[in-house]
Each structure stands twice: as structure tokens, then as C-alpha cells.
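User: C-alpha cells for this one?
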Amino acid sequence: MNVVKELSVCGGRLVKLSHNSTSTKTCMNVNVYLPKQYYAQDSSRSRPIPTVVYLSGLTCTPDNASEKAFWQFQADKYGFAMVFPDTSPRGDQVANDPEDSWDFGQGAGFYLNATQDPYAQHYQMYDYVHKELPQTLDAHFNKNAAAELDFLDNVAITGHSMGGYGAICGYLKGYAERRYKSCSAFAPIVNPSNVPWGQKAFKGYLGDERAQWQAYDPCALIKNVKRVGDDKVLIHVGDEDPFLEKHLRPELLLEAAKSTSWENYVQVKKVHGFDHSYYFVSTFVPEHAEFHAKNLGLI
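Assistant:
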């Protein structure tokens, strides 16, 4: 893993990294924010600093949320690190949408493992985000000493739009092994099998067999995952989001959760006057940060 650049931000440092991925067979970029607690000189910290993973939306890179979501202030407040992965494999050798649209192909990996040619060779984003990347970051940051950063065990996940979908999907798929301590989302695509963005991606990456789609659809997954304790999923969405009725449809996740262990444990907060932008995301990051800090044992 190569350090491309380090920047002072708030009380900590944003580290821009790149590495050759075995999952995507490409060079992948990832940003990591190390909070001020990482650099503290005292010995008050009794355990490794936990991590919040933020998955970005369509067309984004690791820089969008790093620059616009203001997670760093909250990371310093509570003492967690932030991981901002890329949204897809990239490069001249990576297949792209033949129509060069913005909602499929490079920048739109949908956080799944593609099975269809020509995408299967590189678009293995589920394995990359949830399996390879945590191990790679752990090896890089904790290689010379006892672990100071926890990328493996005390981890929460969140995301926006396509990334909100990816967060909920990854949380539910990894729930039995407790991969993530908590999950939240900003304006997520909750039922990709039944909305245009998701149908386009699933057909292109997974083929026409809809049974294959169910393995990555939160509305299908939630019916087969038994909730433990007081685990909840927190969702915010703006009532002026232009994609709300056609692509997001958060009410479908509430419907899917009915008569399951998740009923009343998926909280959808529809907030008046907000759209799909980072003005919306940054406004509610503090609430999501507190939610995750509690589940990570920081409050």
C-alpha cells in the first residue's frame, strides 16, 4: 500500500492511499482519516481506535465525502477513524458502460461481485470492500506494533445513495458474523431489484436471473436475517430529493421488515426541505456519528 499524500485536517490527518487489489485486479484508491486521538501522546487509550466505513454514491471517488461530508469533526469528537473507499475499479483495462452513462460501469460498481462478462474480471467490489480492504489496511497501519487502529472487529458502516445501499447490503450479508457493529445510510437505494438504477446495475453485473439479484437486495436480505439485541438501522432521506420516488423508495424497506425481527428497528427519518446533495449529508452526519459512536463503545 502506497501513501500518495497526507493532509492535516481538523485535529488529525487524512491519508490518501493506493494499492494493487487482488479482488479487482486494479489499482484502488482509498482515503483514511486518522483522528486526533491517534496522535495523542498520553497513554489513556486502552484499546485500538475503531473505524467507520463510508461508502460513496454514483460517480464519486474517495475525495467527495472526505471534502464535503465533514466526518472529520465527528471523528475527532468521538475518537474513530474513517475509511473512504472508491466506488468501483478504474482504468483503461476496466470495462465501462458501452453507452458511457454515469449510473453504470466505472464510478458505479454497486458494491457487489459481478458474474457477467466483461465486468466479472474487475467488478468484485463486495469482496474488495468487506474482505480485502480491511485486511489490507490492518496490515499497513498495524504492521510494526500492537494494533492501534481497529479495521477488523470494532467497525461501523454507512453510506450515501448507491453507497447507502452498499452499506445496508454489506451489513445484512455480514450480520451473522457481526462484521459491522452498526449501520446507517443517507438516501439509500433500498430495493434495487425494483427500481431503475438497481435493475440496470443488477442486469449488467449479475445477468437476467432475478434470483441472483436477491443476494444483494436489502429488502430480500432483511427477511432472512435475525436481528440481535437492540441493533437498529438509521436512515435519513430528504423530502425534496429528486430521486426519492423513482430510485430510493425507503418505505419499501419498512414494508419488507414487517413481521420480521427488524420491524420497528429500521428507522427512516424523512427530513423536510433537503435534497440528495452533500448539503443534506453533512447536515445529518453528526446524528449518524453519535449513533455509531454508541455502538462502537465510544459513548
